[in-house]
Amino acid sequence: MSNQKQKASLLDLTLILSNAVDLINPILHNHHKQVAYIAYHLAKEVALEEKKHNDLLIASLLHDIGGLTLEDRLLTLQFEVEKPYQHAITAYLLLKNYDALQDVATIIKYHHLPWENGEGQTVGDEIVPFESHIIHLADRIAVLINRDKEILSQVNRISRLLEAQNKKMFHPTIIKAFNKIKFKESFWLDIVSPFTDYRIRRMWIGNSSLLDLDDLIKMAKIIGQVVDFRSRFTALHSSGVAAVAESIAQRCNWTAEECRKIRIAGYLHDIGKLAIPNNILEKKDKLTLEEYNIVKAHTYYSYYLLDSIDALREINEYASLHHERLDGSGYPFHHDEKSLNEGSRIMAVADVFTAITEDRPYRVGMPKEEALGLMEKMANNNALDHQLISLLKSNYDEINSIRSSAQKQALIEYEGFSQEINTIRSYDDDEEMFDHSSYSELIYIGRVQ
């Protein structure tokens, strides 16, 4: 089995996810990258060990991915965040099982922990990473910036607000570092510069190691979970699409490597849905025309998020064109059969098949005859590929069993995740004030460790 290196790095995949979660509202545009830039310069000033710089960069770019809804994300933009540990620990839970991101997950878990005159050095018997305190200050600097006003005129106000909370909220060494670099106009102008991607890439120390297919699959699965776990309505969808697409590709005599690529595409195909508000995604009634148009934009976002990485071009074509139709009636590009390759056609079939056969909280999946009837009708109308529908029909029970098994495993993962999140939220309801002791207690509740 070929497992060649793909020319995509951990930083590439991180930037895709970071950009995606910042799409949900214009207020959040570039927030993660601004925090990464500030954290990088604070780290340089305090002479953070070089080997820790890259984990700090990744953690900064992903620090708010635990804000699974727009409301969660907007709350993090308050200077004194109410119950900040909820989204921090949610992000930790999403990332901690991927070996390459375990240290990153721990940094993010504590990125809102206040210094509290030194109490913030540890939580229980765990040492809090110094990088967590760097991101804490960097994040608070970023949220104090008024995007509607000229940046240099805001420096004194931001400095006063930070100094007022020095010993309570922030590590004194990091505050000293900020006080040294705050006089550089370039520091502030870079934060609000439109050229952040270029600067972020230059912050990476050493060569950015390329991911092989195994690591791409792991990272793509994490991204799929960030997309799916926002809503119980779609919590299992990407895992089902990935499994079905891979199974169909195998029956089309694709190579093992090609099948793994389309599995990756299945995990990534709905990444653009991170830009769609939850109230629309979870609406049980028929969508209004405006709401439907908002949903249709998700494939456009998916395409351009993935298109930023040349090495993912093939995977992108499979992933992002899953709502295109052979007769040209799909969206967002209205490609037709002349321009849709076999991978895009497989993904379209896998997406429809998974969507209609999977159970969701508000309805059960279609039975076999009804599902096949609908898909054959779509093939007869030249929306889906006839040959692929015939292949699906001939192998229906086996492919459906593969979908079901993949989604049962995803359900176990989602229920475990949900149980931990509900523990956090129930504690959140009981606590009136956030402090070091409440953070410490929460970390050791249930299975959070």
UniProtKB/TrEMBL annotation:
* SUPFAM superfamilies in the record: HD-domain/PDEase-like
Per its UniProt record, what PROSITE patterns does this chain match?
Answer: HD, HD_GYP
Limits of the HD domain: 28-144
The residues covered by the HD-GYP domain are: 212-408
A Pfam family for this UniProt protein? HD_5
* Protein name as it appears in the record: HD-GYP domain, c-di-GMP phosphodiesterase class II (Or its inactivated variant)
Protein species of origin:
Anaerovirgula multivorans
